What does this fold into?
Amino acid sequence: MSECFSDDMIVCRCEEITVREIKEAIADGARDVTGVKRRARAGMGLCQGRTCEKMVQAILCQELGLGADEVGHTSNRPPVRPISFGQLAEGVVE
It folds into this structure.
C-alpha cells in the first residue's frame, strides 16, 4: 500500500507523521503498530490512532511481509481532557 503513495504523504494527521517516517521507524526496529507508535509517534495524537492505524498496519505489512494479525494494533485509550497542574496537585479532577 505504501508504494502507492509518496514518502512525503502524511499518514498521521494529528502528529503530522509521513510515510517516510513510518518506514524509518521500521528500519529502526519497529515490528508492530506499537513499535511505530513509540518510535515515530504515529497514533499518539488526539484521535489515538483511529484515523491512521489501518495505514500504519498496511505499511508495516508491506515493508515486513507480515500479515495484519502479526503487526497488531494499538490498545484503545479513553478520551482525555487537559487539566491544570494546580488541579492535579490539589487532587481536584472532575
Observations:
- Helices lie at 19-27, 33-40, 53-64, 68-71, 85-90.
